[in-house]
């Protein structure tokens, strides 16, 4: 079924729906139902990640809607992400293969490097995703994200991924990546909202023809301030109020 959501064109010519459904914390039967309802009302871009632990739910919802004849696979845009502990080039293909199997799809539209930092590899189970050393600290890895990117490029060449991009990268990290990439990142997904507008990063990305995908575009109501333990009321923020007036005028 046709959707009225407009699409943006990436630097590689492929298109992405301008509005997408983020699925962080969306799990179980309730999650499947929510994703199916989102497709019913017009969402065509579904964003998931290995770290979210809900690729199976996304795949189930997508398969059900396709089986109903409500949408075709080519109408949908599915994004998933490579987790930090899979950055070693020798793990990238297997990590992606597991995501593809979870989703039960033959390809994904967009594969993102979830973060520019690498963690030590302990395995693919959920309990392994945040590794710790013997002192109880998060165990990092020295894998360079440029090497990770080269392995992601191979997924595009193999036809398993239509586009690749990054998430949570700053300008310096993007410059490093662009210097070595043979397939350029089409997008950088970062938190972006009236309270955290990311203007310098957005301007840089525009100059490099990198589409910025806004994560948490309306803020993150489930996150408390780390120092006070109180969730900020962003709707009363003066800058947010000013933005609302500008949008309505």
Automatic annotation (TrEMBL):
Any coiled-coil regions, as ranges: none
Alphabetized SUPFAM superfamilies for the sequence: NAD(P)-linked oxidoreductase (SSF51430)
Catalytic machinery residues: 52 (proton donor)
Span of domain NADP-dependent oxidoreductase: 19-220
Residues annotated as site: Lowers pKa of active site Tyr: 81
One Pfam family matching this protein: Aldo_ket_red
Residues binding substrate: 114
Top-rank lineage group of the source organism: Eukaryota
UniProt-recorded name of the protein: NADP-dependent oxidoreductase domain-containing protein
Source organism phylogeny: Eukaryota, Metazoa, Ecdysozoa, Arthropoda, Hexapoda
């Amino acid at each position: 079924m046709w959707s009225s959501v407009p699409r943006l064109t990436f630097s590689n010519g492929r298109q992405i729906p301008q509005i997408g459904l983020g699925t962080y914390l969306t799990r179980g039967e309730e999650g499947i139902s929510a994703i199916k309802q989102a497709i019913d009302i017009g969402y065509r871009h579904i964003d998931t990640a290995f770290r979210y632990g809900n690729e199976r739910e996304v795949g189930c919802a997508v398969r059900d809607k396709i089986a109903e004849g409500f949408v075709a696979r080519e109408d949908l845009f599915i994004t998933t992400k490579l987790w930090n502990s899979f950055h070693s080039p020798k793990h990238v293909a297997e990590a992606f293969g597991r995501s593809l199997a979870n989703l039960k799809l033959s390809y994904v539209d967009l594969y993102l490097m979830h973060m520019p930092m690498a963690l030590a590899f302990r395995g693919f189970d959920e309990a392994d995703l945040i590794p710790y050393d013997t002192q109880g600290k998060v165990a990092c890895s020295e894998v360079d994200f440029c090497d990770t990117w080269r392995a992601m490029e191979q997924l595009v060449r193999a036809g398993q991924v239509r586009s690749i991009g990054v998430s949570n990268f700053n300008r310096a990290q993007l410059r490093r990546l662009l210097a070595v990439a043979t397939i350029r990142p089409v997008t950088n997904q970062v938190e972006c909202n009236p309270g955290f507008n990311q203007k310098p990063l957005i301007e840089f990305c525009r100059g490099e023809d990198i589409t910025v995908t806004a994560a948490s575009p309306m803020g993150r109501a489930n996150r408390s301030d780390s120092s006070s333990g109180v969730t900020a009321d962003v709707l009363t923020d003066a800058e947010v109020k000013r933005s609302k007036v500008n949008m309505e005028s």
